[in-house]
Amino acid sequence: MFSDFDLKVILSSLPYLFGTGMVFTLTLTALAASGGIVIGTLLALMRLSGIAVLAWPAKAYVNVMRSLPLVLVIFWFYFLVPYMGQWLTGASAPISVGAFTSALVTFTLFEAAYFSEIMRAGIQAIPKGQTAAAQAIGLNYRQTMATVVLPQAFRNMLPLLLTQTIVLFQDTSLVYVISLTDFLGAASKVAQRDGRLVEMYLFAAVIYLLICIVASTLVRRLQRRIAIIR
Amino acid sequence: MNYNWNWGVFFDPSPEGVGTYADMLLSGLLWTLATALCSWIIAFALGSIIGVMRTLPSKLANAIGTGYVELFRNIPLLVQMFLWYSVVPEILPQAWGDWLKQLPNASFYTAVVCLGFFTASRVAEQVRTGIETLARGQRMAGTALGLTTAQTYRYVLLPNAYRIILPPLTSEFLNNMKNTSVALTIGLLELTARARSMQEFSSQVFEAFTAATVIYLLISLVVVTLSGLLERRVAVPGSR
């Protein structure tokens, strides 16, 4: 069954797979994770602010995003981002943005919903006494959050944030539906061109498997190291 | 925004010749539901077995369970979809591969199997957590009563564990339903694919996607409501 397994097609396409595909995947993952964590934290703060006009939209946003398939959201933003650009820049027609920008906006905003749930749990897990103490020594809301609550919440939630980033790393393969060349897209293009589906898809699967297993092992190790003994 | 809204488009005839765009979306919804339900049956059954294996005393069962979960959780769903669709028929014996390839609705069966195996790894983690959350005394009590390991699981551990994990299982069910949209890459004409082709044919982008969005939100709402009812129905009287 593996008699005509062709290793050469994998070897000769390595520079393309990693130089183009994997670089794209990792860039998208890193940028979307950073943006997603920032926006997610803001959403979490809005939800916990106790101010209905802030809490309600944040809650609605998170719940809607989490009920929709990522593929549908990718399509939504693929068509919506040009209009958003037009609205933001005041241009007269929908502006054309690159597919990469569109994917980046999609993943940042989509993952923000998931990161916000993690940050919300992290902020809620900080004992109320800490906020009270911060207020008692005269810190305002911004200072309380920035110097007391959020640093601890980030530290406690770091393993979960990283695990979610691994999920994001796997999910970026879905940019396939808007024909972008991420790692899987690159493998798929070579596979179609050379008619070597078996080799290329198996190779892609092995690489994803290795990266994710190594990454989640590192996250587990980090979790043990940073755990605060209470 | 200079976009021409036309909400009447749903009642225009679709380019398929029969029915309107609304019918097209409806047929997509039915494929989404069929795929989600069929794959859930596999995911629930297989996931329960794998989850139980990870809590058994046997080292071998543990290793198999852990291996399964690691394998299926660490490969992106889309890659798994391609593996089942393009690679499995190739590496099977010739006759089986040919049979698979000319199966009608091949993308449906592939999606069901792929999602079933994929979601099983997530269900397995929930089942294992559920069993591990139970007090140790429950397993011991089962043994003390003279139940075999299988009987302890059947009559003591699993009935309790399933009740505990009902809420996370509901969200796994919803994730599985959302994941059916990935099968559009192998040609399954489910809801997202239908919305996408409606957008291509009618160029009413936002109407098509709004309709799909509303349908997905409604499914979530219905599933969460039903799961709440189920939870109350199966609750052990007196607990909590």
TrEMBL record, chain A:
Subcellular location: Cell inner membrane; Cell membrane
The keyword Transport is annotated on this UniProt entry: yes
A Pfam family annotated for this UniProt entry: BPD_transp_1
Principal cellular location given in the protein's record: membrane
This protein's UniProt keywords: Cell membrane, Membrane, Transmembrane, Transmembrane helix, Transport
Domain ABC transmembrane type-1: 22-219
Record carries keyword Transmembrane: yes
Top-level taxon in the UniProt lineage: Bacteria
Entries under Gene3D superfamilies matching the protein: MetI-like (1.10.3720.10)
Membrane-spanning parts: 20-46, 67-85, 91-110, 160-180, 200-219
Membrane topology term: Multi-pass membrane protein
Entry-linked InterPro entries: AA_ABC_transptr_permease_3TM, ArtM/GltK/GlnP/TcyL/YhdX-like, MetI-like, MetI-like_sf
Family: Belongs to the binding-protein-dependent transport system permease family. HisMQ subfamily.
Protein's name in the database: Glutamate/aspartate import permease protein GltK
Species of the source: Methylobacterium iners
Organism classification: Bacteria, Pseudomonadati, Pseudomonadota, Alphaproteobacteria, Hyphomicrobiales
TrEMBL record, chain B:
The UniProt record lists the keyword Cell membrane: yes
Source superkingdom: Bacteria
Transmembrane segments: 29-53, 65-86, 205-230
DNA repair recorded as keyword: no
Keywords for the protein's UniProt record, in alphabetical order: Cell membrane, Membrane, Transmembrane, Transmembrane helix, Transport
Domain ABC transmembrane type-1: 29-227
Pfam families, per the entry: BPD_transp_1 (PF00528)
Subcellular location: Cell inner membrane; Cell membrane
Topology in the lipid bilayer: Multi-pass membrane protein
Family of the protein in this entry: Belongs to the binding-protein-dependent transport system permease family. HisMQ subfamily.
Record NCBIfam families: HEQRo_perm_3TM
Name of the featured protein: Glutamate/aspartate import permease protein GltJ
